[in-house]
Amino acid sequence: MFLFIGVFHRERELAVVRFHCDHCHEEAAQHIVESGSRLWIFFLPLFTFSRRCVVVCEHCGWITEVSREFAKEAAARARA
Ligand SMILES: [Zn+2]
User: How many A from CA of 23 to the centre of ligand 1?
Assistant: First the structure.
């Protein structure tokens, strides 16, 4: 019997918001990105683990890790 198991890294952009970057102090677009690893068995994704959320400054490329609550709240505000 064969068992196909794989773990793949995935990134998903939650939103793009504008605010002042802590690093370059410019007001620029900030990309809120969620990344994680997803376990696949055969061709079915089972669950995602090692999730983390980061904010990437479009102006300078600085990456800041943020909490999931902050990322989801900022994404909800960007959609409204
Ligand atoms: Zn910046």
Answer: 5
